[in-house]
Amino acid sequence: MMNNSIAYIQFPGSNTENETINMIKKCGMTPHPHFWNDNPEDLGKYSGYIILGGFSFEDRSRSGIIASLEPVMDEIKKQAQTGKPVLGICNGAQILVESGMVPGNNNFDTVIALADNKRVVKNNIVGTGYYNTWCYIKPNPKANSAFTKSGGDILRVPIAHAEGRFMLDKDLSDLVMNKNLTTYQYCKENGEVVGDFPVNPNGSFNNAAAISNLSGNVMAMMPHPERTINGEGNYIFENLKKYINSSEKLSYKSLNFESKKIKVGKFEQPEDSREVLISTIIADNEALSVEKCINMLGANVKIKKYLHYEVIGVSEKELKKVLETDVLFNPSKEFVSNIKRTSSKKHFISRSHDDIHGQSLLQTLQTRFSFENLSSLKSGVVWEIDFSGDIRKKDVDLILNSHIFANPISQVCHEY
After folding, report:
1. Where are the beta strands (DSSP E) in 154-242?
2. Residues 263, 415 contacting (CB under 8 angstroms)
3. How far is the C-alpha of 106 from the C-alpha of 257, rounded, in Å?
4. Peptide bond preceding 103 in cis form (omega within 30 of 0)
């Protein structure tokens, strides 16, 4: 093994490699590039790993999901089980969460999500979507982590993300709290933890800026410590080096949490609703990426994607006027479509539990365009799987259990 050697993992769309290289060198370690399609066995010679931020595979389907299913992640899981440190920053954090490496449940089940930002003040949503700013975070002195030490200072760091809200089930959130797996929290400059925006910039559970696995050698962090100006982020990388050079490595442990099994019922559309399906005029690169990933897993299918809207409170005539606002789709590249069903096709619809996107569109149509009768608007995605022949249950199960269509914590999936 190469001492103090850190492999930084790059996927198509990753960035921040220059900042990461500089920080690794600055803190006395040696950076080595490793691309997603390099030989995974080469990873064994490095002391630790950093999964870069950015937009792996352009965040197609969901941030981090396609990268999490790449073979390179299987090798990183193996290296983590030997006690080697793994740090995922921003998109890297999303990859670690989707791959099940954080918080590291048995069999690397996906048990948490990084959901859409939700900026909240006194239980009111005041903003959603991409957000970048400088914020303050503080380490958890009780955390057993390769990336903290007792008495660490408050750090001023930048964030830049759209899906940074750590989301957990109640039972798991209690376990994460009890095990001190929240490694860093968003806070005020004086260290006070306040759950509302702007201190908590994305509505994250327990003000979580970073969550680690039970062993403490894997951490998913949404802020960018590699981008700090005055050396504030050095603390995290210096601890990484200290851990690598320590004679006592953290013994790998996994949680024994009963994870949710994927359950896909039939989609039931309310009787008083109207349905809108949107398809693209141009090639749908998102669907093509999902198709390629699914086929890499072992299926042999074609994938098509439709945006789906469920609208309540408007007549057919009013719905036409809603569509004419161009709020729901861009007529330059999208059009209102219909699904053509055949015996070789299956369809699944995925929606976010709190559907922030649908709420935002509803508010825009009500306030800016005065559709006062419009009472509900829900958004989602319909995925069409064309098997070009007999539909094999094992292929359907393979696709659904990969979670490529929906994270079971933040989203729901139904057969459509």
Report:
1. 155-161, 165-168, 182-187, 208-212, 218-221
2. no
3. 7
4. yes
CB 87 within 8 A of CB 211: no
- pLDDT digits 0-9 by tens, 192-231: 999 999 999 999 999 999 999 999 999 999 999 999 999 9
Helices (H), 157-214: 170-178
SS3 sequence, 130-142?
CEEEEEEEEECCC
| Phi, psi dihedral angles at 29 (to 5 degrees) | -120, 170
Q: CATH 3.40.50.880: which residues of the chain?
A: 5-245
Q: Is 199 helix (H, G, I), strand (E, B) or coil?
A: coil
Tens-digit pLDDT profile for residues 3-37? 899 999 999 999 999 999 999 999 999 999 999 99
Q: What is the pLDDT of residue 1?
A: 64
Tell me if 316 sits within 8 A of 272, measured CB to CB: no
Catalytic annotation, residues? 90, 224, 226
Q: What is the pTM of this model?
A: 0.95
52, 8 Cβ separation under 8 angstroms = yes
Question: CATH class for domain 5-245?
Answer: alpha beta
Go through the chain and tell me how many residues it has: 416
If the chain, 416 residues long, is cut into consecutive pieces of 10 residues, what is the mean pLDDT of each piece?
90 97 97 97 97 97 97 98 97 98 95 96 90 97 90 93 95 95 98 97 97 97 96 95 88 89 88 96 96 96 98 96 97 96 96 94 96 96 95 94 95 96
Nearest to 11 by CA among 96, 83, 85, 120: 96
